[in-house]
Amino acid sequence: MTTPPLRLFFALPLSPELAAQIVTWRSQYPHAGKPVAESNLHMTLSFLGAQPRGQVPVLEAIAASLRPQAFTLCLDRLARWKNGLLYLAPSQLPTELTELEHRLKESLLAAGFTLESRAFRPHLTLFRHCHSLPAIPPPTFDWPISEFTLFASENTAKGTHYKALGRWPLLPITTT
Ligand code: ATP
Ligand code: MG
């Protein structure tokens, strides 16, 4: 019997504290669309889609080899795409984020994974099915990134659940 494939992606997870802060802030806009569950808030780095379970150790080895630098992301843009996603994004992209995404992508491609050719557009989805951008000042959330995660996206009776299969720390910033 073959086991079903996993739906996999690498992402930056939020701490429960920051997720709670963001959810408290967005609760002022209850009609903005369908909210993403608090425990599902994240920023995708690389989406792999359906993969055999046997690929998980390969992905773990790639993740462990990266050893990226820690950084802080300042989420200070509120924006909406035509597909109805309302999201937070950084107006300044730290080079550490660009580098992490780039190196992860290069390693995945070198290992034979097929990835989207679209450019990386870092975002943290707040609502889906949002019809218009709320006319509100954007917030500022400072998000210290200390790890990245390999998630399996699972469909459950309660909705989509992301199961962390592995977490890798980012190297602390050292000052000399
Ligand atoms: P659901 O699709 O069940 O409503 P979801 O979108 O949160 O929930 P997934 O579709 O499994 O769950 O997606 C997991 C993550 O990967 C999300 O950040 C999603 O935006 C991203 N993602 C999904 N499909 C793609 C894709 N084709 N290309 C790039 N990123 C994707
Ligand atoms: Mg989806």
From TrEMBL:
Location of the motif HXTX 1: 42-45
Coiled-coil intervals: none
UniProt entry tagged with the keyword Membrane: no
Pfam families recorded: 2_5_RNA_ligase2
Catalysed transformations (reactions): a 3'-end 2',3'-cyclophospho-ribonucleotide-RNA + H2O = a 3'-end 2'-phospho-ribonucleotide-RNA + H(+)
EC top class named in words: hydrolase
Keywords: Hydrolase
Keyword Hydrolase appears in the UniProt entry: yes
Top-level lineage group: Bacteria
Catalytic residues of the enzyme: 42, 123
Motif annotated as HXTX 2, chain positions: 123-126
Family the UniProt entry places it in: Belongs to the 2H phosphoesterase superfamily. ThpR family.
Task performed by this protein: Hydrolyzes RNA 2',3'-cyclic phosphodiester to an RNA 2'-phosphomonoester.
Name the record gives this protein: RNA 2',3'-cyclic phosphodiesterase
Source organism of the structure: Metapseudomonas boanensis
Lineage of producing organism: Bacteria, Pseudomonadati, Pseudomonadota, Gammaproteobacteria, Pseudomonadales
